[in-house]
């Protein structure tokens, strides 16, 4: 039999385009060219079997979640692409398959950009917004509608082939997915029902594959829709776009955009006077030089300055083993402590105790990686009802010096007050309030530093203790997916990407008004 090729690379047999790699059932048993594969091979590469395999395999990868090794992102990505490949050759078979193809394209357009978004620090903010909620519901609705159209498409094909119109397995797939969404909505976490749902899903897939074999054996003629790009080229194009998008996310959207400006050296006469007064009261000069004019004015009328300084490590240290008879003592020694804390309490005038608390930090070593940073303050009123915040909002900024010694400053990318309620093991409920400052260190310069400040006053007139803590979280690696910021990190200790250090300012206030610093640093 003579063959010709059309412009898309398809064989033209009796005027119909046939893919070189596919053999259609209507040509089985005919005297076709010997260049075509034999029947036992052809049955394994028919357009229908390949398409249904991609569709069902893609649906399985999108429906079952494995939360390790990033498989909860990798498998759905492969599944979405397989659904595209599966419905693409069937899009001209009937109207329902055309709808399936359009829905598969829409689902890919909604889902694949999220894979790129996960490589930026803005993913959590987007998902927590109304846009993220709408996106989630849209993807669920599209998937449900896709399964419905798939069910109707199979019914239409069965009627056309004369093999019946039930397509019950496809309907069961739709019901199964609806049940999964219901269990997710009620946050079901039981094992037995989960295993039962998995077993049902395997049976549904088995029935759908059996249904596809029945369609093949019926002799139904299926002609794949012509395509401009082969499946291999389409997959490569999608993979390349994802790779470029993820790389751009890591390179350009892995840190906050900071508004660096030359540090102003001019102060008002009042600010200059307050600065001199604070310096005389013992405020460390290097930290005092970083204060903005507004923070200097907030210390107006200061009567006492209490300072606590400490050096904290931002590395894993080294393990030291010491043998004592039959036992071995294992300890961690830090040869370098990269982060210097200066915690300052400034007493302000007033009938009640009124303090301005300023937590400074300064990197004494070169920062090896610059991603996202967080300073989270547990203020005096964090778990102590005898203190309350005053009317002013927290303040703070980040600074560095360039090679010529010029200082630059920028406000924090975000400086927020967060309030929440927790209940301890004894049933006591606390209303907590902390202060979070998010920022990124510059990729240039040295002496990178900053501070966060707030004011507090006593509530009962009998306060004898003040404690304020500064928790610094530093990102030290790019190797994470999805990307999380220092604020997103919820681990208690050091993780593979983030490290933490804490400095505390603890004061005892005596009846005569004197103050004793309680901190002890080994």
Reconstruct the topology from this structure:
Blueprint (H helix, E strand, L loop, with lengths): L3 E2 L5 E3 L2 E3 L20 H4 L4 H17 L7 H17 L7 H23 L5 H6 L1 H32 L6 H18 L5 H27 L13 H22 L8 E2 L6 H13 L3 H4 L4 H5 L6 E9 L5 E7 L2 E7 L5 E10 L5 E10 L9 E6 L8 E3 L5 E7 L5 E5 L2 E10 L5 E11 L6 E13 L6 E11 L22 E12 L5 E3 L5
Antiparallel strand pairs: 1-2, 2-3, 4-13, 5-8, 6-7, 8-9, 9-16, 10-15, 10-17, 11-16, 12-13, 12-16, 14-15, 17-18, 18-19
Helix pairs in contact: 2-3, 2-8, 3-4, 4-6, 4-9, 6-7, 7-8
Biggest β-sheet description = 8 strands, antiparallel
Structural class: alpha+beta
Kindly estimate the percentage of residues that lie in beta strands according to DSSP: 25-35%
Q: For the residues shown, what is the average pLDDT?
A: 85
Q: Catalogue the unreliable spans.
A: 6-37, 39-44
In whole angstroms, the N-to-C terminal distance is 91 Å
Radius of gyration: 33 Å
3D structure, described in words:
The chain has 522 residues and is an alpha+beta fold. 36% of the residues lie in helices and 26% in strands. The chain has 12 helices and 19 strands. Strands 4, 5, 8, 9, 11, 12, 13 and 16 form an 8-stranded antiparallel β-sheet that branches. A 6-stranded antiparallel β-sheet has the order 14-15-10-17-18-19, with no helix packed on it. It has a 3-stranded antiparallel β-sheet with strand order 1-2-3, with no helix packed on it. The radius of gyration is 33 Å and the shape is elongated. The chain starts with a strand and ends in a 5-residue tail after the last strand.
